[in-house]
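Page 47, continued from p. 46.
Same chain as before, 239 aa.
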Amino acid sequence: MSVLVRLALLSLVGSALLSGCAPATSLLRDDTHLLVERVREEGVQELFPAQFRDLVFTFDQGEELYLKGDVPAADQYYGFAVTKARVLEAAYADEVKRREEIARREAERKAREELELELKRKQELERAEAEAAAAARRAEELKAEQAEARRRAERARYEKTQVLPTRHTVKRGETLPQIAAQAEVYGDPSLWPLLYRANRDQIRDPKVLWPGQQLKIPRNIDRNDINEARRFSSERPFR
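Result:
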């Protein structure tokens, strides 16, 4: 039941009470005055201004009758004012509680939103840090690849400009595969037949070399010469 309806019913009850009998002295005036002032101090009029004005009007009606000497009628108004004041206090307490609950829920909603926003910011920061780390790794990898490419290019230029020897002096214990495997010769032991064929004038047995021999190193060779040398080497393992 709303406050307005309850106060309306109280007004009807008060009207009925006015027609009855009352004691000759005021038993409610002081307590009613204190109650009305307490309701005023609580700030009830801020939430229920019309109902508070009605309460004050009822109390003032009692005051007018009291000053006229009609104490019984005044006490009836005082009693009705007490009832209205208590109804207002209860309604005020309910409204304050309701508003506090709304404020609490609103605070919780804002706290959730702030938490979600903070979580989102944290996730975005972590994602940005991960992307930055990945970009840094890619940059380092690219830098390493570029450095390796430069090293390969420099090595290729060096090998291209390097003057390769056309002769080799046999050292003690060397074999044709060992000589062919040397980087400045062919870098491949299976190409020893190239050396053997180019030096048949001084090598009768490819497995026998003498220290100090000056072996020619063929340079004008093509892919067919290389393939043929490897085939020959595979057919006649050098043991």
